[in-house]
Specification:
Elements (H helix, E strand, L loop, with lengths): L2 E2 L4 E2 L4 E2 L4 E2 L4 E2 L4 E2 L4 E4 L4 E4 L4 E4 L5 E4 L4 E2 L4 E3 L5 E4 L4 E2 L4 E2 L4 E2 L4 E2 L4 E2 L4 E2 L4 E2 L4 E2 L4 E2 L4 E2 L4 E2 L8 E2 L6
Parallel strand pairs: 1-4, 2-5, 3-6, 4-7, 5-10, 6-11, 7-12, 10-13, 11-14, 12-15, 13-16, 14-17, 15-18, 16-19, 17-20, 18-21, 19-22, 20-23, 21-24, 23-25
Antiparallel strand pairs: 8-9
């Protein structure tokens, strides 16, 4: 029941669980595990307002998604395709169930992203970062290496290297 799109690449010793999807032109590195229902490279939530109609117009998602070596993506994780360029998950990062990573975001090496967390589009998460359950990182922010974002934190500003934040808004 898994699907691999045209031009996608799956590295050696990687496993796709039931109903896992790797969309066209996306890359999954070696020794990765995509659990049931994980989706790599779906279109990001990109829309622009049409002032004439009051409706929203889809912005084409032309980039790709790259999952580096030794990454695990839990059940029903969604890693969006980039608008341009790429969305990237760094080597050795472990992503728990029900996590959403937006278009053009990047998550560094050796990170933990726990259940129901979200990283919005174009956010940059450094190496060795922990994002606890139900935390959210707003778009266009930077989270420095080794930072910890506590459970249910709502991150609305940059987080420096090694900082620990908690709460909503996070402080």
């Amino acid at each position: 029941g898994s699907y691999v799109g045209k031009g996608a690449h799956i590295g050696a010793d990687s496993i796709l669980g039931p109903n896992a999807v790797v969309h066209h032109e996306c890359v999954v590195g070696e020794r990765c595990f995509l659990y049931a229902g994980a989706v790599v490279g779906s279109d990001g939530f990109g829309f622009a307002p049409d002032l004439a109609t009051g409706l929203h117009v889809k912005i084409p998602q032309m980039g790709r998604t790259v999952i580096e070596d030794d990454v695990e993506l839990g059940a029903n994780v969604t890693i969006d395709r980039a608008v341009f360029g790429e969305t990237r998950i760094g080597r050795g990062t472990k992503v728990d169930n029900l996590v959403q990573v937006g278009h053009n975001a990047s998550i560094g090496m050796g990170c933990f992203v726990v259940a129901q967390a979200g990283v919005s589009g174009t956010a940059k998460v450094g190496n060795g970062v922990t994002i606890a359950g139900q935390a959210g990182v707003a778009g266009h922010l930077t989270v420095g290496d080794g930072a910890t974002i506590g459970a249910q934190a709502g991150v609305h500003g940059d987080v420096g290297p090694g900082e620990r934040v908690l709460g909503s808004p996070a402080f």
